Amino acid sequence: MPRLGSGIPLVARTHEMRRLRAAFARAERGEAGAVLVAGDAGVGKTRLLAALGEHAAGRGALVLTGRCIDVRDGGLPYLPFAEALEPLGAAADPVVAAAVRVRPALRRLLPQGGVPEPAGGDHGQVSAGERDSARRPRPEQDLGQLQLFDAVLGVLTEIARDRPVVLVVEDLHWADPSTRDLLSVLLSRLRTQRLLVVGSYREEDVHRRHPLRGLLSELVRLATVERLELPPFAPADARAFVSALAEEPLHPQVIAEIAERSEGNPFFVEELLASGADCDDLPAGLAEVLLARLERLPDETRRVLRVVAVAGEGVSHAALAQVAGVGELELDDVLREAVQHHVLVIEDGFYVFRHALLQEAVYADLLPGERTRMHAGYAARIREIPQGRGKDAKLAYHSLESGDFGTALPALLRAMYEAEKLGAPGAALRHVERALSIWDAVPEDIRPDDVDEVKLLHEASYFSGTSGEPERAVAYARSAVDALTSETSPPHAAHTWRRYAEALLVLDGTFDEAMAAIERAWQLLEKEQPSAARAWVLAARAGFLRSGDRPDEALASALTAVADARSVGSAGAEASALVTLGTLADSSGDAAEARERLGEALRKAHDAGSLNVELRARYFLALSHDDQAELEPALAHAAQGAARAEETGLTWSSYGLELRARQLHLRYLSGDWPEQDEAGRGGRGVSSAVVARILAIWVLFLVARGRFDEAGQLVAELRRLWTADIQIALNAGDAAIQLAAWRGDHAKAVEGAEELVAWLEKVEPSLLGGIRVAALGMSSAVALAAEARARGDQRAEEAFVRSGRRLLEHGRRCATDGTPRSGTLGPEGRAWLARLEAAASGLHGQPDPARWSEAAEAFAYGAVYEQAVCRWHEASARLAAGQSGTAALEAAHEVAVKLGATPLRDAVRTLARRARVDLPGAEPAASPPGPSPLTERERDVLERVALGRTNRQVGEELYISEKTVSVHLSRVMAKLGASRRAEAVAIAYDRGLLTTPAE
């Protein structure tokens, strides 16, 4: 990434820098030109021009820089040119000195000439008589000005004969008339000089009546002048800029929020970062800078801008007229002023601030009384307009801010339900939380009749859960249970207890508490007549009983729920019970019945609008196919469910999350690897544990694709979240083991596997995922044992063998004592068990090629990457046994290349080179420059001897006999004229025959 002299990265300005460098390159060739750089304040114009200056200076150019300043009375004439040319007056360079000396007119700009004199068009301090005479043409003054213009152009042209010149004039929006005139003449006379002129100006300050506007229109029509617009950073580039500026790593969500709030403006990013990553208030320094832009506007314009700021969004002309109390014609003039000065913009007929932070600054500058009155004015207007989308949310906001809680409460509740219908649970949660915050402040006699505090807490719990905040969901549900009284009706109380149970079920380690809560709900309705409330409780209870491994009770509860639901017409409750019946059928081994039940549940839930039940049905359909290794239909159901969750705003709900996680896992297995990062980091408020469920799967892709640094950082972040969800521990732990193994740190890989196994044995001793953990760790234990055996370290070998045996014991126990959903170990579990046994076959010597072949075939159900890894191990085992490993190598290489699995690809290619197998598409092994007396095999042998290998070890690595190694070494020593092995190695290094020793 290119960087500026300040050390701040020049993020995402590659295109702009390329254009500036191209203009400079043309100037170097004698094609003079000019570039006018336009952009908002703080967008990075100065940094960009500084980078150009460094580039030009590095190529021997003379870089001259001057800046216009903001002076209210017109500014000092020629100030930026005087600043830019100042170094010429004291230059020791004889070419520069001579060029200046022959042009006495330059004395008006150079330091020895004092303050530049006013020239035609300036507005300095003059007497009344002088002012009158200035209105008449003054030929002598015009002549002096032309002489100055010629002198500036002449000195630049003269110097440019010796070396290229870059003249930078910044902040042209503040340029005085003389500076504009000189710039105009200079740019119009650019021809074949080795000269580049670059000017910058703030786009938002050059309004329609600004004097620079007309000049710019004339200049851009010149063939030698081009305009370069510098926009704010795009979202991705803004995030990269935030990360680069931060002094320490920031959470991705914090980075995203700062980038979004700054709207890609680099200066705003710096100010927001300086105020603290977690600061929501606008930094005082930034607020002052923003408000300073408004100081020059008329009082009435600033007053209307305050009204716009209170709206908090785009505001119509009619609304502004009513709230501001300004007449239509007067308002037209005021708004025209604000638009022309680029403070407001018009979007879809509404007025909005050009930058959201400017709106924040204006709003923060309001007095309390102003805010209250204006919010009340907006609320009054909103009440008058017909019902429409978003009306209640706006009314609630302005009523809250004006202190009218009686109006705000019902509006918040209506906005909550509207947000739910629109698939925005996060917005619904904010509305209900605001309603809870003012509940006690609203008199009982004006509260809505159908709402009480328990209901609000219940809704807050539900929307917290669907927004990806399970901990808050539990907290609100617990508060709702605590708020129940003896006067609460049984259906209402049961509904509250059911919500509490469902919230608890999402968190690990709370199943017993959740089971107690659902039983409490059932006790309240057990003796009641069939009702929708009773059917929902029965359906939920059936699901809990199934999860608690009480299938008979679960079946009875589910069947009763179906009967109750059908008798009262509650299709959603019926669908929920049907999902449990489907999962029970799956557990008993009847996949056909399971899918029939789940399909029926899916249709009924969809028709009834029971979104969470619909997602649950879709998830278990995907799981049913996944259990049987039917990856294609499993992936289709998971993808459809994830899309439905996103469409309805339930992406981070319990089953929305599970569907997305299942989809990503299935894509990893099937080799449908996404090109870009599809993990996501969640939005504001989404629990880190919830997001980690996805990231723990994504890190597997990172490891497999060789993005080790990213993977290592993410693995470390996820380690502290193992206890939040066992799936996080399994996936992130597996990734950590593989990462260490691919990096060649087998000791760390074994350590990681043993740590994860020990953790699992405390949490869930016979978890089927433990087979995979054991298999991954076993490969590294075998590698360590083989290395110890090769160097004759029996004690170390025995220690690594013991580690392998512990892993083998754990994996076998998981396979026999685990409880598969379908009742028997499925294809995936059997495949990992086969891989574990294949790896274990090498604990005491050469691995069994047949075992590895069986493991590879076991993954043939569609796990293409895992199968390719097994083929690589199979090829190694076959070669060690003196067999051909070509077919296995080619199969593994093809998959690795297709997936972009670079660690596997490189490992396969290394093995192929050692075995002298040519792989399609693989580059040939690098050879030392020039002719070599050694054959490729002789060089392979000598490389390993250089690493201290014995003849036996060299033979094992190259799959040849120890005697053959000795023969090759004898030939090498003869060719090199060496009498000993060490001498042969030294000669080979001296002659460049050995460059990169093989590892």
UniProtKB/TrEMBL annotation:
SMART domains the record matches: HTH_LUXR (SM00421)
Comp. bias (Basic and acidic residues): 129-140
GO biological process: regulation of DNA-templated transcription
Keywords noted in UniProt: ATP-binding, DNA-binding, Nucleotide-binding
Coiled coil feature spans: none
Molecular functions (GO terms): adenylate cyclase activity; ATP binding; DNA binding
Domain HTH luxR-type, chain residue ranges per copy: 927-992
InterPro entries: AAA_16, P-loop_NTPase, Sig_transdc_resp-reg_C-effctor, TPR-like_helical_dom_sf, Tscrpt_reg_LuxR_C, WH-like_DNA-bd_sf
Chain residue ranges for the region called Disordered: 111-140, 919-938
GO cellular component, one term: cytoplasm
Protein name: DNA-binding CsgD family transcriptional regulator/tetratricopeptide (TPR) repeat protein
Species: Amycolatopsis jiangsuensis
